[in-house]
Amino acid sequence: MRLDKFLKVSRIIKRRAIAKKIADQGRIMINDKVAKSSSDVRVGDVLTIEFGNKTEKVQVNQLVETTKKDEAAGMYEILEESYAEDFGKE
């Protein structure tokens, strides 16, 4: 399954166009390699996604073409979440 489609179907990112834009900016990695929106995602892959000041690492558990909102969370497992430090705070 394409990376941008997985991110949309799993509801990690709400719109496929946004998922494509983020991937094409080099802010998503699959198994520690920079990924493009057309990269293939397989079960067991680890995705690292940079959102603004938050970085999320998730593992792909299953791939389905369509899903309901309450079933989407089963497609992945969050391994790690980290937030960038606020350098301007004192």
Write the layout of secondary structure elements.
Layout: H1 3-9, H2 16-24, E1 28-30, E2 33-34, E3 46-51, E4 54-60, H3 69-72, E5 76-83
Antiparallel strand pairs: 1-2, 1-3, 3-4, 4-5
Helix pairs in contact: 1-2
Would you kindly provide a written description of the structure presented here, covering whatever features stand out?
By secondary structure, the protein is α+β, with helices and mostly antiparallel strands. It has a single domain, classed as RNA-binding S4 domain (Structural Genomics Hypothetical 15.5 Kd Protein In mrcA-pckA Intergenic Region, Chain A), CATH 3.10.290. 22% of the residues lie in helices and 29% in strands. It is built from 3 helices and 5 strands, in the order H-H-E-E-E-E-H-E. It has helices at 3-9, 16-24, 69-72, and strands spanning 28-30, 33-34, 46-51, 54-60, 76-83. Strands 2-1-3-4-5 form a 5-stranded antiparallel β-sheet. Strand 3 and strand 4 form a beta hairpin. The model has no long low-confidence stretch (mean pLDDT 89).
- State the major sheet: 5 strands, antiparallel
Assigned CATH class:
Alpha Beta
- Major sheet strand order: 2-1-3-4-5
The total strand number stands at: 5
Oligomer: single chain
Radius of gyration: 13 Å
Helix content: 10-25%
Q: In sequence order, what are the helices and strands, one letter per element?
A: HHEEEEHE
- Strand fraction equals 25-35%
Distance between the termini: 45 Å
Number of helices: 3
Provide tags for this entry.
90 residues; alpha+beta; Structural Genomics Hypothetical 15.5 Kd Protein In mrcA-pckA Intergenic Region, Chain A; 5-stranded antiparallel beta sheet; 3 helices; 5 strands; rRNA-binding; RqcP
